[in-house]
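Hello forum,

I keep getting stuck at the same step: I have a sequence, I want structure tokens, and every attempt I make locally crashes halfway through. Rather than fight my setup again tonight, could one of you with a working pipeline run this one for me? It's a single chain of 158 residues.
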Amino acid sequence: METAIRGRLSLSPNTVFNPKPGEKRSLCRGPCTNRGVLMAISTTGPSKGGGILEKPVIERTTPGRESEFDLRKSRKIAPPYRVMLHNDNYNKREYVVQVLMKVIPGMTLDNAVNIMQEAHCNGLAVVIICAQVDAEEHCMQLRGNGLLSSIEPASGAC
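Reply #2:
Ran it on my machine without issues. Output:
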């Protein structure tokens, strides 16, 4: 018969777990600092001792937090930013489309043409909405290729 006992154990690489039936031993020598390891102890036979440790399941939690869910919930999500393309009287339409496809990852020909046309007709077009760091990078690349561009928070007015 095989019995599984689950509990929190703090083991160092030098600690040997081989209790005799009825013995209560502390597995921790000195201060126990590694309390985030969950181990399964499997014994064979009724009360025969000689336990075998299975592969540990490591929980990554911060002291004071209850679970991984709480950790994810507490992280702040960076607000999105819009990369805006401004119309200019210097660049040809074909060049604008080529630059958009080169600078923006995943930009298709159809999307690039639509963005270029919107900027040409309305004076302004949204190129992409992304994190602030990426928006700044895209804006600088567009400017580096001679296009007028800017960024603004996506949560602002349209």
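The helical segments are 68-74, 93-103, 109-122, 132-144. If your local run keeps crashing, start a new thread with the error log.
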